[in-house]
UniProtKB/TrEMBL annotation:
PANTHER family: 5-FORMYLTETRAHYDROFOLATE CYCLO-LIGASE, ATPASE INHIBITOR/5-FORMYLTETRAHYDROFOLATE CYCLO-LIGASE. Belongs to the 5-formyltetrahydrofolate cyclo-ligase family. Its cofactor is Mg(2+). This is 5-formyltetrahydrofolate cyclo-ligase. It comes from the Bacteria. Substrate binds at residues 51, 56. GO terms for molecular function: 5-formyltetrahydrofolate cyclo-ligase activity; ATP binding; metal ion binding. The keyword rRNA processing does not apply. GO terms for biological process: folic acid-containing compound biosynthetic process; tetrahydrofolate interconversion. Keywords: ATP-binding, Ligase, Magnesium, Metal-binding, Nucleotide-binding.
């Protein structure tokens, strides 16, 4: 199964990295339209998003649109003392940014800007691939699996929503025992729900 999952990761990452600039721009605009129509975004105040990398669907226009709606945006930061875990920091245009060990931009760690994950309303997760059962295949580090574990156990706290390009959908994700489907995945053309 590990080999199958790695093969899917490579195949789908290659697919999304082949999207040209115009296609990426259109997809990002359509994502904003999809999300702003959803009650989950309309009723949420504290929303965790991520800064796109490696061909991921560009979240910058969505962040800007949510700021215009006076929503508070939080960005994941690698936990400095608990490997494999995330912290969420308040993100503003003036936030000082640094690169983490994966070369991904994140807000400079400042304890005053941390929000506990359970106080977030939504956690928008990146993903590499997904299927029509809302199974999510991430990069393999388990950061979001660990972050979302309390929600999956109790249904209380921040609701997870996956964001992806349409081309990231595949027929079926080979699942492991720890894999839990997301309740919703939003693409530029469709909202997938369990």
């Amino acid at each position: 199964m590990k080999d199958a999952r790695q093969h899917i990761r490579k195949q789908v990452r290659d697919r999304r990295n082949q999207l040209d600039f115009h296609t990426q721009q259109v997809a990002a605009t359509q994502l904003v339209e999809q999300c702003l129509r959803l009650e989950a975004f309309q009723s949420s105040q504290n929303i965790a998003l991520y800064l796109s990398t490696d061909g991921e669907l560009n979240t910058a226009p969505l962040i800007d649109a949510l700021w215009q709606k006076n929503k508070s945006i939080y960005i994941p930061v690698l936990h400095p003392f608990s490997p494999g875990h995330l912290l969420f920091l308040h993100y503003q245009k003036s936030s000082k940014m640094v690169k983490n060990k994966y070369g991904i931009a994140e807000p400079k760690l400042d304890q005053r800007h941390i929000i506990p994950a359970h106080q977030l309303d939504l956690i928008c997760t990146p993903l590499v691939a997904f299927d029509d059962q809302c199974q999510r295949l991430g990069m393999g580090g388990g950061y979001y699996d660990r972050t979302l574990a309390p929600w999956f156990k109790t249904g209380v706290g921040a609701k997870p929503i996956g964001l992806a390009h349409d081309c990231q959908q595949i027929d079926q994700i080979p699942t492991a025992a720890w894999d839990i489907p997301l309740p919703m995945i939003v693409t530029p053309s469709k909202v997938w729900q369990r």
